[in-house]
Amino acid sequence: MTKRNIPVKMNETYTLSIRDLGIHGEGIGSVEDFTVFVPGALPGETVTARIVSAKKSYAQGRLISVDSPSPFRTKPECPAYLACGGCQISHLTYEGQLALKEKRVKDVVSRLGGFSEDLVLPILPADHPWNYRNKMAVPVSQVTGGPVIGYYRQGSHQVVPIDGCLIQEEENNRVLRFAQGFMARHHVQGYNEKSRKGSVRHIMARTGDKGEVMVVIVTATPTLPFAELWVKEMRQLLPEVVSIYHNVQKSPGNVILGQTLHHLWGRKTLTATLAGLSFEVSPFSFFQVHKDQAEKLYAKALEYADLTGSETVIDAYCGTGTISLCLAKKAKKVIGIEIVEAAIEDAGRNADFNHVENVEFHAADAGKLMPKLYKEGLRPDVIVMDPVRAGCSEDVLKAAAAMEPKRIVYVSCNPATFARDAKVLAGLGYTLKKVQPVDMFPQTMHVETVALLEK
């Protein structure tokens, strides 16, 4: 086989036509059919880029100039945008973001699934594309000048200092600024990942109903320096804070919370409502970070389930039971299945808290439990799937199809794995009827979908 010559050279500049964006929001162009990724470039633009790295099959370019700008290009509102890795496409107008995400869903449904892109409906936009996240978890590091709190620079663990995030609810930003001031005043050390020295690793905040806030201070050390003072000053300066925890995470890596949790002050849980249901949220609980869009997503899933009150529904990958409890309001019975036992425990508590009695939860592998339930005589009318980004296992897809429900509602956070799974379900006798994209996370490349498949 002839070895291909790479048509680009290091540190040379090239003019590129950008045709698409990559998964991290980087522009994609070509030099003689050789792919070049250019962060900061947008589809439809002609740009000049300098090659900064070259591999066998692609190169990375640094944007030098935008020679022909996209009509959707805009100046990012965030002053830390170019350095911070939290958002990827804030240099694209919101109209442009929506068009990009809708196109992305159409592309994968057609290219990977083999379906008509006409099945993809217009994307559901966010009413508020800024200040929407109700949960914040910011890393803390220690540098020569003292502790730094912010977000990681994209592709690294270097913390970019910020004094607020434009996609966070303002209550969370107030916690961030308080932590910056407190640690500076009292000379509290941040954590150095390389030396594994220092104390505070993360500041986490969750905003619930009525602007009430839970704060979790995560340390690498078994004790929290100035613990009583953290509580005293936070109560004085942040009256919206109703719960304060200290979490210990000694293990290296990207997992934010450790298993050791100390309740320092206030309530042990935070109350948050979603789709008319109330949830008691703890530091470890999963809860949708964009409440308004999650309600649109769940409403669309309920619409596609088309429940009349007589149906039995299986909610595979049910997590903490949020979709299950929404379904239970309109179904005869809902069976939630989730392999993570802690999530099932939360689901049971959420059902009790909302006085929902027509739902049952099982800590099990859905691919193994569903065939067992089928042999026992269970015939669900609807199966709802909401898997992780990797999509459904083949066992779950085959088990679901074997139960012959009238409808399968597939909720996905990854259009590519959804398209792959929909193709498998089509081979098992199901017809894809429609796909609804939902913009759950404005300013980022992420897009959610809800799809209906029928027997």
Structure in a nutshell:
S-adenosyl-L-methionine binds at residues 288, 317, 338, 386. This protein is an alpha/beta fold and 455 residues long.
Note the topology.
Layout: E1 13-17, E2 20-21, E3 27-31, E4 34-38, E5 46-54, E6 58-68, H1 94-111, E7 135-143, E8 146-152, E9 159-161, H2 170-185, E10 200-207, E11 213-219, H3 227-237, E12 241-248, E13 260-266, E14 270-274, E15 277-281, H4 291-305, E16 312-316, H5 322-328, E17 333-338, H6 341-353, E18 359-363, H7 366-375, E19 382-385, H8 394-402, E20 407-412, H9 415-427, E21 431-438, E22 448-454
Parallel strand pairs: 4-6, 11-12, 16-17, 16-19, 17-18, 19-20
Antiparallel strand pairs: 1-5, 2-3, 3-4, 5-6, 7-8, 7-10, 8-9, 10-11, 12-13, 14-15, 20-22, 21-22
Would you kindly provide a written description of the structure presented here, covering whatever features stand out?
The protein has 455 residues and is an alpha/beta fold. It folds into three domains: 13-68, Nucleic acid-binding proteins (OB fold (Dihydrolipoamide Acetyltransferase, E2P)), CATH 2.40.50.140; 103-127 and 290-454, 3-Layer(aba) Sandwich (Rossmann fold); 135-274, OB fold (Dihydrolipoamide Acetyltransferase, E2P) (Beta Barrel), CATH 2.40.50.1070. Helix content is 25%, strand content 30%. It contains nine helices and 22 strands. The chain has a seven-stranded mixed sheet with strand order 9-8-7-10-11-12-13, covered by helices on one side. The protein has a seven-stranded mixed sheet with strand order 18-17-16-19-20-22-21, with helices on both faces. The protein has a six-stranded mixed sheet with strand order 1-5-6-4-3-2, with no helix packed on it. β11, α3 and β12 form a beta-alpha-beta unit. The mean pLDDT is 96.
